[in-house]
Amino acid sequence: MRILLLGCTGFVGKELVPTLLNKNHEIYIVSRKPISKLKLDLDFNKFKFLQIDLSKEKNWNNENLLNILRETDGIINLMGEPIAEKKWTSEQKQKIENSRINTTKFMMKTLKNLKINPKVIINGSAIGYYGTSLSSEFTENSPGGKDFLSNLCKEWEAVAAEKPLFTRLVIFRIGIVLERDGGALGKMLPIFKVGLGGPIGDGKQWMSWIHRTDLCALIIKALVDKKYSGVFNAVAPNPVLMKEFSQTLGKCLNRPNLLPVPGAVLKILLGDGAKVVLEGQKVISSKIKNYNFKYPLLEKAIYAATKN
């Protein structure tokens, strides 16, 4: 298939792009970053690249982009400013929203105006859709929450639903993605390796996680398997409490699990963004049935990510 990738140039893309190429898909990557800034350890001759900011509507008139859209069989849209890396100022919240909502809205509008019907569009979302809870369990049928992230996900999914009539749409509400070179695990590993690791906050919040290899495999399966249509929770089948995550990480590294990271410190650093790690949610999938997770259990996932 000819696949257009939006926002697949960072932590997830680092594994997704080479995996797609190994499956003999033809790849077009569109990013606002120059090609030299991509976090892809690849021969750049193996894919086609266009640098452009798709959150600006005028850029959807770019002739090179329109030619790519006309040729593409499928689109993977994971575009978005990182959620939990900066303090949630008003300006940062606007960036988080615009990078997702505007890009997706302008894409759907352009496809429909030009009567382009890709076979499939895979659109990102997040388990933040459900809000946070210490006790509730959420599936794809659960209602959305009411906080900033919930409203962001609901709006992102709503604009994605404005897809061309004959295009199959798959939305993945993605959990906490685990691998050593980024995400939550990437931030925690250096601290644990020197023996100073511990749970974040009180350790009682839920972590609904997925190993990056399983996320990439799910995305690629959804490209070709027509049974994938609608919303799916991209999470491993066994969510854990933060204190269990911390204990497992310490065990896999043969390091103590000692010092909790106070919630107050995270709130100073991240503001409202601290909610992402201090207030979790227990999310499972009631719809992913025909996929065998390579890493269904946390210990296996963390061991695989830390063994080298």
TrEMBL record:
SUPFAM superfamilies assigned: NAD(P)-binding Rossmann-fold domains
Sorted UniProt keywords: Cell cycle, Cell division
Source organism, top-level taxon: Bacteria
Any one GO biological process: cell division
Domain DUF1731 residue range list: 261-302
Residue stretches making up the NAD-dependent epimerase/dehydratase domain: 3-226
Pfam families per UniProt: DUF1731, Epimerase
Keyword presence, Cell cycle: yes
Magnesium found in the keyword field: no
Annotated family: Belongs to the NAD(P)-dependent epimerase/dehydratase family. SDR39U1 subfamily.
Name this protein carries in UniProt: Putative cell division inhibitor
Organism listed in the record: Prochlorococcus marinus (strain MIT 9215)
